[in-house]
Design brief:
Number of helices: 6
Radius of gyration: 16 Å
Structural class: alpha/beta
Number of strands: 8
Largest sheet: 8 strands, mixed
Helix content: 25-40%
Strand content: 25-35%
Length: 201
């Protein structure tokens, strides 16, 4: 489950490939996030899209009236996403940022992580947790999508069971729900995933 995973050089990847070809590219708001926002009655709050990649989720959130900050390790990813948002006339704060050494100093109503956490090896997860918890307002939310232990492809990020999510995040967050779902993108079949609603305790 947790054998060391080989992951790409993100900057090189975004320089060399069209974002529409990437496995995680989904032009629409993630359906699980959409459902969670409705369920929790979150409207026009402040949002951080962590590891925004193609920027589609940040753009979809901004179109719904959220005040969005979007970050990625890759400068090229940010530049490409920013161009798309500008064409759509959207006001999104784009920042190149490494979440493990973040320069962000703001608190958000919620953080969306649709594929950032699950690329970190086990020894870096506490660092991630420490940074992310400080970026969320009291009683705010972390919406986390990651690969499920049910995913059978040999390549790709780390996988998690619901119990592992509870163990990793339970100290800093109330784990409101962890559901089995899929990772909406360009792969067929869609990878098995977990969608987790975590509230800062």
């Amino acid at each position: 489950m947790n054998q060391r995973r080989e992951l790409p050089d993100w900057e090189q990847l975004y320089q060399e490939k069209d974002v529409e070809s990437m496995p995680w590219f989904n032009p629409d708001l993630d359906p699980d996030l959409d459902q969670a926002l409705t369920q929790l009655k979150l409207h026009s709050s402040t949002a951080l899209d962590l590891g925004t990649g193609p920027g589609t989720q940040a753009i979809a959130l901004a179109q719904r009236g959220f005040q969005v900050t979007a970050t990625d390790l890759s400068t090229t990813a940010i530049q490409k996403a920013q161009r798309v948002a500008q064409e759509k006339g959207l006001d999104i704060s784009w920042k190149q940022d490494d979440i493990l050494n973040s320069t962000l100093n703001q608190e958000f109503d919620f953080v969306l992580d649709r594929g950032c956490f699950h690329v970190f090896p086990p020894e870096r997860r506490p660092d991630y947790m420490q940074v992310v918890v400080n970026l969320i307002k009291p009683q705010g939310y972390l919406f986390l999508k990651c690969f499920s232990h049910l995913e059978t492809r040999p390549e790709g990020p780390y996988r998690f069971t619901p119990d592992e999510i509870k163990e990793i995040f339970g100290g800093q967050f109330n784990v409101l729900s962890v559901k089995e779902t899929v990772y909406h993108g360009t792969l067929s079949p869609l990878p098995r995933a977990l969608f987790c609603i975590l509230q800062k305790s």
